[in-house]
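Summary for the funding panel

The consortium committed to producing paired sequence-structure records for every protein in the target list. Below we show the first two records in order, beginning with the earlier of the two.
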Amino acid sequence: MFTAQDEYGNSTSEINQTGASTWLTGVLALLSALNIFLSITASLGNALILAALRKETSLHPPTKLLFQALAVTDFCAGLTSQPLFAVAVMTNIVEMNYSHDWYIVTAFILCGISLLTSTAISVDRLLALLLGLKYRDVVTLTRTRVVIVCFFVTTVLCVMMHFWNASAAWIAIITFGVVCLITSIFSYTKIYLTLRQHQAQVHEFEHASQGQENGGRTPLNIARYKKTVSSIAWVQMVLVACYIPYLIVSILRLSIKSNERSLEVIYFAAVTQIYLNSSLNPILYCWKNKEVRRAAKAMISQVCCCVIVIGPSRVQFRE
């Protein structure tokens, strides 16, 4: 069989492999640098959102708690899991002693809780619409805390399963991901259809309930409900866009079982897209919620004022 060679005796296939390897190495370096940058934006952005949510008063306390749990997981992902992932990507470029277990543990737990919490928020909004006045009795802070603890336990069990049987763990994670996405899509579809078909009846019920005592409870405020659902829907759509590529790539890795470097790079890119979600959520919160945006602006102004005041004082002290 004839193989083309260059002037130095290297075959064309070897040259192509070297070029492809160099290109993949450049992509890995870019992904590593991008994850370091995104870890900073996710940490700072979600820290700002957590502080702003403390001043948020329009959300029902259980819903607010779910948003806080989502922001906490995104903050921890940016602070711990994403830097570990950036190092894991670098190990494919530079040889170093590094265990991927730490990245896998933190990624499974934090990203898993984030996905489950986002799904819980969509179900919470559906219950608010379907239950009406009973919603505040059914969805309480105590039950919401129990649900969040169950999410944590579930993700920890998946991590433990990974060390026992990696393939079974991946299948469980993919199954959980698909179920969460289907549940969220069903919830928002049901919300849309219910609002479209029964909005007139809900308004009538709201007007009929005005002036009546309901044990301190008030009927569902459709205008406020629509704003909340709109903001949550944007968060959910971005989450779906960020997680679906990872689910597809994970299914391909399980079915193909190939060690090709190109597939590994695609997998790293899909994981990076998941981490991107942690940086986008704070932007969505500020964009879709006026109270959060106002509180975030006030905090940024306070920080800038402190920096401006402290800066000159340090200069004077040194002089």
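The next record, for a separate protein in the list, is shown here:
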Amino acid sequence: MDKLSEILNIIYAALCDPSSKYFLGDEHGILGSGILGILYRTFTAPNFWCYFAAYLIAAIPFGLLIGRYLGGVDIKSEGSGSIGATNVLRVLKTRDPQKAKKLAILTVACDALKGILPILIARALGFDENVLWGMAVFAVLGHCFSPYLKFNGGKGIATGAGVLACFIPIELIIALAVWFVVGKTVKISSVASLAAALALVIASYVIHPQMPAINTHAPIFLIVFIVFYKHTPNIARLLKGEEKRVV
């Protein structure tokens, strides 16, 4: 019992008593500047929890849930296997075309909102633009690499559009116009999405040569890179002439 009390006293002194020889803190604060200190400061920083929340919320696979519970299908095992609105539409269209369109629109809305809402809440709480842009990137990462799906996920288009609407709405409108025109003309979802992503990058440089508050286009490049990376199989099929059209 005495030994246990001694151990507990040492632990207390190490964490809470700066006058003790066991204290682990220094000028950097409790737990010092080593790996424990870095972990401590990381997990107690509000910014970390903003990024973590953005990632986990955006990781919710709404397309899969909507397809399963409202459409009665498992879109992971049919069509392209993607959890996005395009696959919801593709899989359900053979069963009920009207219902397919409604559920695809619902999927787009949910995928966009799960990126938008955490950023708007953080903005209302007073977090600066650097943190908000970081949340945007983590939201797209969450959607594309969901821990709920063994780090698989969607293509990032709707969630990416949602988060970018919070910062560069004019550029997003231009990208959506390109997406619509290319989609109607080519009728290949991946081509429309990639064309829209490129249009957004170009428009962001034309309209905002220096991004307000953060003075860098790096978050936009990261989001677009993730989108292109997730479309790698589509690009391979396009080069082979095997990519499916959405009629």
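Regarding this second record: The chain has a mean pLDDT of 86. Residues 97-124 form the longest helix (28 residues).
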